[in-house]
Design brief:
2 helices; 4 strands
């Protein structure tokens, strides 16, 4: 896979004026045969409607088509709905912890 980040947006229906409503998105970084799901999010009022499942299935299919063989992700330890979703797709918890550092850009 070509290295770099990919962002995909999930939309639902067409709103007034012809625009669609964003209900969620998924972002991933590809680097050779490794892919990392950087973020998967669904708006609160649209959760539990299958959008997260669709976004996760989409990004995994995209990665498979790009030649990715190993996929990683992180989630909060108390985000049980996300953990259940990821387990349904065959992800399992590792004991690795990654330090994260941040910087505000002005």
């Amino acid at each position: 896979a070509q290295p770099g980040a990919r962002i995909f947006v999930g939309c639902e229906g067409w709103g007034a004026g012809g625009g669609s409503r964003v209900v969620g998105y998924v972002g991933a970084t590809l680097n050779g045969d490794h892919g990392h799901i950087d973020r998967l999010a669904v708006r609160g009022k649209h959760q539990r409607a299958g959008h997260g499942t669709e976004l996760l299935a989409f990004i995994l299919g995209f990665m498979d088509g790009a030649g990715v063989k190993r996929v990683t992700l992180t989630t909060q330890s108390d985000n049980y709905p996300a953990q259940v979703l990821y387990a349904k797709f065959g992800f399992h918890r590792t004991l690795l912890r990654f330090p994260f550092y941040g910087k505000w850009l002005t």
